[in-house]
Structure formats: C-alpha cells, structure tokens
Amino acid sequence: MATAQSTSRPDLPPPGRPPRRRRRWPWVTALGVLAVLALGAGAALVWLFDDDSPPAVSLEAATAALASSTTEGEADAATTTAAAQGAPAASTPAPASSGIAGAWAVDTSLGTFDYEAATGSFAGFRIAEELRGIGSATAVGRTPAVSGALTIEGTTLRAATVEADMTALTTNDSRRDDRALGALEVQQFPTANFVLTQPIELGEAAASGSPVEVTAMGDLTIHGVARPVQLPLQAQLSGETIVVVGSLPITFSDYGVETPSAQIVLSVEDHGVMEVQLLFTRQ
Fold this sequence. Notes:
This protein is of the alpha+beta class and about 280 residues long. The protein contains four helices and 13 strands. The chain is globular. It is about 20% helix and about 35% strand. It has helices spanning about 25-50, 60-85, 175-185, 205; strands at about 100-105, 120-130, 135-145, 145-155, 155-165, 170, 190-195, 200, 210-220, 225-240, 240-250, 265-270, 270-280. Strands 1-4-5-7-9-10-11-13 form an eight-stranded antiparallel beta barrel. A hairpin with a 2-residue loop joins strand 9 and strand 10.
C-alpha cells in the first residue's frame, strides 16, 4: 500500500503560530542614513568654507590695476570725443606728474571693491583658522569705506591719518560676516584709525615715481583701544595717484577683541595681519 506524501511546506509555521517576519536590522539602516548625512554635510561645509581667500595686498598688483583702469578710461574718453567730433581716436599719453608735495586724500572713486578684483581702497585683516573635517583656511575681512589724508612738504610726509568704517566690513565668506562684526563690536566701536606721530622722509626717488618702502610710526586704534605701532608701508606715485599698501601683524587680544567661534571652527588664531590698500589723489 503506497504511503501518502505530506503536502505541507516546511517553511510554513505550525497551525496557530503567526508567521515569523524577517529581521530588518534597523541599526544597519541607521548607519546608512548617518553615513549619507555625514557625506552631505561634509560636502556642504567644503562648499561653504573652502579656502578661496584673496591674495594679500601688493604694491605691484595695485599699481598695475590702477594703470590698466586709467588706460582703459582714457581710451574710452578719447574714443567718445573723437566720435563726437567725427575724427579718429588718438592715443594720449598720461599727464606728467608734478611731484608729491601737497595735500592728498583717499579717493574711493578709483578702482572697484570686491573679493575677485580689489582694485580700490580698503582696510581689513587676515586671520588663520582650522575647520573641522576640512583643515586650515584664511578668513579675510575688508571694508571699502575708508577716508584719509596726507600732507607732504617737499619729500617729507608731515601728517597722515586714515579712518575705516568697520560697520561696512564684509568677509570673503558672507557666513562669517555676522561673527566678525560681532567680535569687533562695530555698533559700539564703528571706526578704526591710524594717525602718524613722526614725519617720514620719502626721498627724491618717491617724487620721480619710484616705489619706496618706509616704516610709519603712529597710533593704531581698533575696538576703541589705541596702541603705538610701526607700520611697514610701500608707496609709489603712479601718474597723479599715490598708491599705498601695508601689512602689520597684530594680536587681537591687545585690542580687546575676542576672535569669533563656531561649531565647525576648531581653532582661530588670536593673531593675524592688518592690511591696507589706499589710493590718494591731490586735493
């Protein structure tokens, strides 16, 4: 007699017991989500804080930019005049300089101000920072709202003042702006300034348009704190404009400034570099 074969499936649970569900290993899913979030956050932070800081001030770059903008402006003016008169445009050489003696003032109409082509006047700072998961970066803050005056007798600089409106300061990453302005407490201390305290002999070379390097003794005021400094400067007469650039290492705590912090920022140096680029024209 043939034995009947069982038709029951071995993977089915016995009668009365609910079917067993497959374990979904929730911790594996959670780890996957965290990994995706971490990668996304890292990519975002690199995009937000990538070190794209502009180069430091340079006399050569500033004078070259001024010469280029002056040449283009003169060419445009000559073309417009010639077109109005019905004559071909002719190149006109830049007027000869009449020396450096006299009164000069910062001319903010010259050049432009942005972090791609900073060809105008500005004052600001550079500071190193270490970013979590990214590495070192340079935070740069600058304000184009500057004023200043020079008094030169013969080839001697007798008086010099420069003032910067710190409320107009921006950084090379707009996400730093609020922290930078807060650290400087610009609502309470809206300006920074430098006042020359000793005359400087510039020499005959300066009057002929050669670049000169000098050290300006004066008082630097930041965050309401004035301190004597020796500011290294480079200057050159270019056409009818005196171009001045300078950089000075400073310690922020000396001026009562606490460097800003954020969760992504592992460390920020308490010291940095103050820098200026100034274009003066005769008054």
